[in-house]
Amino acid sequence: xxxxxxxxxxxxxxxxxxxxxxxxxxxxxxxxxxxxxxxxxxxxxxxxxxxxxxxxxxxxxxxxxxxxxxxxxxxxxxxxxxxxxxxxxxxxxxxxxxxxxxxxxxxxxxxxxxxxxxxxxxxxxxxxxxxxxxxxxxxxxxxxxxxxxxxxxxxxxxxxxxxxxxxxxxxxxxxxxxxxxxxxxxxxxxxxxxxxxxxxxxxxxxxxxxxxxxxxxxxxxxxxxxxxxxxxxxxxxxxxxxxxxxxxxxxxxxxxxxxxxxxxxxxxxxxxxxxxxxxxxxxxxxxxxxxxxxxxxxxxxxxxxxxxxxxxxxxxxxxxxxxxxxxxxxxxxxxxxxxxxxxxxxxxxxxxxxxxxxxxxxxxxxxxxxxxxxxxxxxxxxxxx
Length: 385
Known about the structure:
alpha/beta, seven-stranded parallel β-sheet, 44% helix, 15% strand, disordered N terminus
């Protein structure tokens, strides 16, 4: 009873919101946006201090119980990270008397005395260090163990990530909790007419496979292109491949490959799309093909499933946990296996229908409302330990 009483006392919660930038939300940012927009409204009696590192969009000030605070400098490279987390932000919070500090992006302050709750999305840098710029890789390698030790509570976004942390770092199992994400509400099935409009706009009116996510080596676009070539060779259809996402890092290999790619006229590269447009493009797809090498969670899988779109993905990291029996799985290093799933889903309409229905059921098992409440409980416990 005493613990519940403490959780109900008015709290002042500092939140690192540096990745809440309009038009630039991706995995980390979307997760923070979905959880925070709910949490602040679910708990109006508590005060939230949102720490931005640059001018912010007012749409991220979700309610009146938020105090936005701009703390320069902009933290977008390792030296700036170190200064912002360990000097600028703690100094800005010194007079705020925060009870707890939420760190949703994998980094923590090593100098503050405020209890911190650290969200860890993945340890990709331990598995695929070659897929990160050297300066980011070294920052993760130097400080992740210290972040995990400093945080009062660590929250992993999947059971896989929790197990990965326990395997690679000396962290007690009791310290690591799991709070899973979900598909955003805007991802829903659309009508046949709407699908036709999307296809006319983006794929010359033809059906298309879809990949969403930044063009980045870890996302495995080169093997997806090889798989698409095999599919086209076997099926000789007018099917297209749409790739939606910004050019993130080390994307030159993909662009060079496309110059001589036999089916380059059937590959449509779309840049970062606004959420509403991405949701329509997703819902009109024939199938999502997401052969990423490694994911801490993999939100695009659930977003496609909730949209009534079947999913082909990798049999690695967290993806089987997220997709369960509602997806087809392949070794991401094997383009032939990926292509066979693409062919199978194209030729077998009953399989496709089964995956669509199973996907809707699977997506419904995840909830941002539940995630927000679970994280809130961890913040309260961390503040009162």
